[in-house]
Amino acid sequence: MQPADSHLTTLARGVVESMGFELVGVEFFQRGTAGATLRVYIDHERGITLDDCTAVSHQLSGVLDVEDPLPGHYDLEISSPGLDRPLVFSEHFARFAGHRIRIRLAEKLEGRRKLDGLLQGCEDGLVVLESEGRRWEVPFESIESARLVPEF
Fold first, then answer.
1. What burial letters (b/e) apply to 48-82, b meaning 16+ CB within 10 Å?
2. pLDDT tens across 35-56, in order?
3. Is 24 exposed, middle or buried (0-12, 13-18, 19+ CB in 10 A)?
4. What predicted TM-score, i.e. pTM, was given to this entire model?
5. Calpha distance 151→29 (Å, rounded)
6. b (16+ CB within 10 A) / e for 6-17
7. What is the DSSP string of 75-118?
8. How far is C-alpha 128 from the chain's CA centre?
9. I need a surface site. Which of 33, 53, 146, 149 has the fewest CB within 10 A?
């Protein structure tokens, strides 16, 4: 996911939030010689429909055409976050306290790069979770990716 202060995230946030949706996250990745993909995750308390994705795609495409933040060809995808919703911004970690999450760290923390546990919240730049009978305090900037773990 793109950092919260990246130019792509700022552009996407402006469009998505002005349309009444929540920006969940922005991904940009290369697909070898086949081009690249810009994927924008959106959400709304009532859920996301195909029409919502189409409307956001149309508006965001216009902004991206004018701003031209990415070199070369890329495909734009607008998506709902799904059941295993990514947690990208610090407010996501506060909002989903009490849910199970899976974190992948950029660097090892006490010999671990992956943590799976019950999210307690986000305090002073630390994501707090209970895992394996102990409390983990993970620096927010150390998180490479985090997702909710669907519970059925």
1. beeebbeebbebbeeebeeeeeeeeebeeebbbbe
2. 889 999 999 999 999 999 999 9
3. buried
4. 0.82
5. 29
6. eebbebbbebbe
7. EEEEE---TT-B--SHHHHHHTTTSEEEEEEEEEETTEEEEEEE
8. 18
9. 33
